[in-house]
Amino acid sequence: MRRPTVRADWHGRDDAADGAGARRWHQVVRTCDTPGSPVALLGLACDAGVARNKGRVGAAAGPGALRKALANVPVHGVTRADDLGDVTCAGDALEEAQAEFAGVVSAAVAAGSVPLGLGGGHEIAYASYLGLARAVPAGDAIGILNFDAHFDLRAGERASSGTPFRQALEHAAAAGRRAEYLCIGVSRYANTTALFERARALGVRWVPDEEARADRFGALRDEVAGLLSRVDHLYLTVCLDVFPAAAAPGVSAPAALGVEPALVERLVDVAVGSGKLRVADVAELNPKFDIDSRTARLAARLIARVAEGLAQPGG
Ligand SMILES: [Mn+2]
Fold first, then answer.
1. How far is the CA of 35 from the centre of ligand 1 (A)?
2. Which residues surround ligand 1, an ion (CB under 5 A)?
3. Number of domains in the chain
């Protein structure tokens, strides 16, 4: 397995005067090659997927911005976390970067750690899926829970940030593996009729953005719980363009409507609390278009929340 090449430097505010309970993320992260903590951060510094998908590039700087935002977030219950560094994509070498990322994810899952991927474009999703698929028995069913304004089920010969879930479902079908894909937050105004038809043909379940509202929490929780009941392992991915543009301006394609962060968090909690979460990632952070690090802070909060949930008994 090739090691991720880029190592992050963690530093931040130190409130030692407030006592042992004053720790922040930069004080619990250990930069290392071999995962040995309950969670392991792993970046995919890659612009190639968004570039191929004709989007606004800049997500290669996402993992760095996310770590910077996370460094000063107070830790609650998380006593240690690994940082395995970044897998970088050289130019257009998307498939190579995905293969390398998948290798690290796979090793982390096999070691009993939950890799937390930091994107990078949503091409991170195919790499995360591949890593998980390699680490678990072929007979086990994998569920993919994606919070996203887009299906990312595009056709086309070349992989991009718009194709990962089609690739994952095709990979599962070719391997004879049961896999299910649930996408929450899909916008009718950001996906063509052809993509909705492909989603139907592939047996994908989805919740449109207009139905992803807090007053429907019960139905949404049931949808997530239904997926969890049918699979052995869960891969959770949050595309930051699922959020309203004001909450997440730092993405390639900001959402006109979007799903409220508080609702996504409550549903993420359901997924994390299931005991089936094996891999999670946050995708599409593009610091170039961020305002006051809003998007990076939201991404960091999600990563912190997932790690906290996993640190709970039964999480
Ligand atoms: Mn996406």
1. 27
2. 122, 148, 150, 152, 239
3. 1
